[in-house]
Amino acid sequence: MKPIPRLVAILLAAPLLCAAAPAPPPVIQPLPWPAPAGSTQLWNATDLTGWVPFFKGGIQPPAAFWSAVGGVLRLAGKPTGYIRTIQSYGNYHLHAEWRWASTPAKGVNNSGIFVLQRAPDVVWPFSVQVQVKAGSCGDLIAQGGLLFTPGQTNMTAKKLVADSEKPAGEWNAYDIYLRGNSLEIYVNSIRQNYVDQLPATDGQIALQMEGYPIDFRNLWLQPIPTLPTP
Length: 230
Prior knowledge:
Elements: H1 6-20, E1 40-41, E2 51-55, E3 66-69, E4 72-75, E5 81-85, E6 89-90, E7 92-100, E8 112-117, E9 127-131, E10 140-143, E11 156-157, E12 172-179, E13 182-187, E14 190-195, E15 202-209, E16 214-223
Antiparallel strand pairs: 1-16, 2-5, 3-4, 4-16, 5-15, 6-15, 7-12, 7-16, 8-9, 8-15, 9-10, 10-11, 12-13, 13-14
């Protein structure tokens, strides 16, 4: 066989080199980051249209478990439960800003954002919890029977680098990228986690209530185009 000329070999290899190149890091805007044009605004800044509350034991939602002032959604934190979207979503960039309502006692400021959530409504449902507990933001928790990979016993994927969250009372941001069955997590623009081979590619999104008042604002998502199969 005659050897392949060098230029031809380079041209043949070029598509492979391009395919192997890592995706550029996302461009994350400073806070506040309102919903961009063409995005889906998950919370309408007025009421809970499009959301369903669920509380431990299936109890009826108390009247004062949430409030809205000036485009900020405050969840009282008690009783234990969550609010979730009615609709399921896949292949998206989810942006969520949060802050603790005041300086809480150590260990009680706990919340989370659930993604890939599936029925039934229970405490806690099949989903990946993106941790919002102070000091643990960036951790991912597999819950409700979801496993990060088949046979894995460790239910928590720890954050990759040192804490990047802000002190109580200041606004923080999660930017969550669900691409197929992979999750990439940024806390205040710092890449904090990545998992793939997840057993789901879409699901509901939920905000957890677990003990302390927490504020949310600018809850929106943008679809990520599905990549063509190679």
